[in-house]
Specification:
Largest sheet: 7 strands, antiparallel
Number of domains: 2
CATH class of the largest domain: Mainly Beta
CATH topology of the largest domain: Jelly Rolls
Structural class: alpha+beta
Oligomer: single chain
Radius of gyration: 24 Å
Helix content: 40-55%
Strand content: 15-25%
Distance between the termini: 41 Å
């Protein structure tokens, strides 16, 4: 858990309140699960989120469990190293070893965060475990593991965790009792899952991340350009292998796939907002061959550029007609193998 988020936690919410905070393109919902355990739901459509300042003290024995459902989560540590979570990843942190800043590199993130005050939560969990006849959850044991030089406990797309956590997202259709049982199940699993956590070293340096973000911005600013990975490596001063690894960490995909996705999104916008011929749009997004542009667009979007433009125009016409009726009645980065 990072210090920005800690600043935004309201300690009084550990005792029964529910709040939803909204910013432009962002929504954070806070729900109490047990005394001492808060569940935050994130719906983020921005690169950064301002958590604000609560001005109140928070428990010193916190544990933070972060799960990424969609998008990318970036955590920056005080020493300039970065860690990233992708879809299905889960991390466990304590404030003493947590990132100091975070970001959402894709400007799109859906996920959740369990914030646990150990002393208060263990009382509630012990009572529930006694009723259910299950083992007690050792939150102290989780904190001890993180206090032994481990910045975080990281699980990369663990299918068992995914099965448990998926139930936490159905808050609209499931009762609070179901959510509480899933939280208990997750904590039981995490307190005994040492052999399943990722053994990778998931950190990237500030210099690597800055270079990769410059590369990402360059690719989006020059979608028509054909450039090799080696050219990018040399231009931005980052070794080729490090560039590919860090780019995948930051954006969750390769430079070629990233550029191809952006090109097709830009082409789709131009098809909708201009009357330019498809061949001209293809040139603007880096394809000299109209047939190749059409083939790549079809693979990415499920239809040809012409079909895409016609379908959207038809949909708009139908919508307008319904509205009127209602009113009346009332190697190359882009893709070496595209």
């Amino acid at each position: 858990m990072n210090q920005e988020l800690l600043a935004g936690i309201r300690p009084e919410l550990f005792f029964g309140k529910k709040e939803e905070e909204k910013q432009d393109g962002c929504r954070v919902t806070q729900v109490q699960v047990f005394p001492g355990i808060l569940l935050f739901y994130y719906d983020i459509h921005a690169e950064h989120l301002d958590y604000g300042e609560s001005g109140l003290p928070f428990p010193e024995d916190l544990i933070s469990i972060q799960h990424c459902r969609e998008g990318r989560f970036e955590g920056e540590y005080a020493d300039g190293e970065f860690v990233y979570l992708g879809e299905g990843d889960l991390s466990v942190n304590i404030p003493e070893t947590s990132p100091v800043r975070n970001a959402y590199p894709l400007s799109h993130y859906h996920g959740l965060n369990l914030v646990i005050g150990t002393a208060e939560a263990e009382k509630s969990l012990k009572e529930l475990s006694g009723v259910l006849g299950t083992e007690s959850v050792s939150l102290g044991g989780i904190r001890q593991r993180l206090g032994k030089g481990n910045r975080l406990i990281l699980f990369r797309s663990d299918p068992l965790i995914e099965n448990i956590v998926s139930g936490l997202y159905c808050r609209g259709s499931c009762g609070g009792g179901f959510i509480r049982l899933r939280v208990l199940e997750l904590l039981l699993y995490l307190s005994r899952a040492e052999h399943r956590e990722s053994r990778e070293k998931p950190y990237f340096s500030r210099n690597q991340v800055q270079a990769v973000k410059q590369i990402g911005a360059y690719l989006k600013a020059h979608p028509e350009e054909r450039i090799t990975l080696a050219d990018l490596s040399e231009r931005f001063g980052i070794p080729l292998t490090s560039m590919k690894q860090c780019f995948k960490g930051v954006y969750g995909t390769s430079p070629g796939a990233y550029l191809r996705q952006y090109r097709m999104e830009l082409a789709a916008r131009l098809l909708l907002t201009t009357s330019l011929p498809a061949a001209e749009i293809g040139l603007r997004v880096g394809y000299e061959s109209p047939s190749k542009f059409s083939a790549v667009f079809s693979r990415q979007m499920g239809c040809t550029p012409g079909e895409y433009r016609k379908s959207v125009v038809q949909t708009e016409q139908n919508t307008a007609g319904q509205s009127t009726a209602h009113e009346g009645g009332n190697g190359i980065v882009e893709a070496q193998k595209e």
